[in-house]
Amino acid sequence: MGTLSNRVDKLVVDRLVKYYGDTCVLNGISLSVREGEFLTILGPSGCGKTTILRILIGLTPPTSGAVYSEGEDITNMHPSRRKMGIVFQNYALFENMTVLKNVEYALRIDKNKKVDSRKTAMYVIELVGLKDYIHAKPATLSGGQQQRVALARTLAPNPDIILLDEPMAALDAEIRYTMRGELKNIQKIFGSTMIYITHDQEEALALSDRVMVMREGEIMQIDAPSNIVDNPANDFVRQFVVDNINHKLKSLTGLIRGGE
After folding, report:
1. Which backbone phi and psi does 141 adopt, to 5 degrees?
2. Which of these, 66, 32, 29, lies nearest to 50 by C-alpha position?
3. Nearest to 161 by CA among 12, 4, 2
4. Is CATH 3.20.20.370 the classification given to domain 1-83+161-260?
5. Running along the chain, 260 residues long, what does each successive block of 10 average in pLDDT?
6. Given this model, what pLDDT does residue 250 score?
7. Pick from 51, 57, 56, 58: which is nearest to 18 by CA?
8. Long-range own/partner contacts, residues 91-95 (CB < 8 A, 24 or more apart)
């Protein structure tokens, strides 16, 4: 795939502004996402993370500003034409369908992919480690397995960009740790461009090529995880990211020593 610096911009966001009534949720957001990049948008609840995602995929119109995909203005384009896939926090699986049918669904509604839908679905299901669960219904699966189904369903149509809205929030710590590695491995296999939303500092630093730290609708810093830790742009980034991580490490060290 080459280094990030050699890759072209897959997505460009230009001065996005979003108001809900008199409340400004996004205040002039501009960023570019490189092809094959894993970009995480990190920030506290209410900072505008999910609003950006909803604008990118076409579920919410911006008040002003524009979104470009490979140079094409997609700001007002229908979601079905944007070549993006999204994994929601609640997974949004069809409870009455099996794993296979859930993954196959997005392929069968696209006439260009319908012919090979079963073969493609089986391939992706096997890739995410659910080959033995193809006939299972979502209610019989664990949280981690349900997340794999949601990810497989999103990957199956091979979208240009995958958006993930806090998909690990409902999982316990051990499963989250395992899923991080699996997500990065899947990204490497597919060469996917991923934009990941989280309020978890450790998750953001572990997964990302770059992290975009937000506060109250504005970007505080976009940088490689190591640069954010070593050179936080301001007091907010230092407190929200670095101090928080250090606090978690101290707490973990205390628990380990207490158990000795």
Report:
1. -100, 155
2. 29
3. 12
4. no
5. 60 97 97 95 95 96 97 94 88 91 84 76 90 95 89 90 88 81 86 93 93 97 95 96 78 46
6. 61
7. 51
8. 91/138, 91/146, 91/147, 91/149, 91/150, 91/167, 92/150, 93/138, 93/146, 93/149, 93/150, 93/153, 94/138, 95/137, 95/138, 95/139
The pLDDT of residue 228:
94
Q: Closest Cα partner for 58 from 39, 31, 73, 80?
A: 80
Handedness of CA 20, 87, 173, 230 (dihedral sign): negative
**pLDDT reported for residue 246:** 80
Query: Encoding tokens for residue 203?
Result: 């998750």
Tokens 């119109």 belong to: 61
Is the distance from CB of 202 to CB of 245 less than 8 angstroms?
yes
Return the domain boundaries, the chain: 1-83+161-260, 86-158
Specify the pLDDT at position 252.
46
Distance (Å, rounded) from C-alpha 189 to C-alpha 34? 17
Sequence-separated contacts (24+) of 249-256 with Cβ below 8 Å: none
**CB proximity list for 167: less than 8 A, separation 6 or greater:** 87, 88, 89, 91, 147, 150, 151
Closest CA to 151 of 174, 114, 113, 185: 185
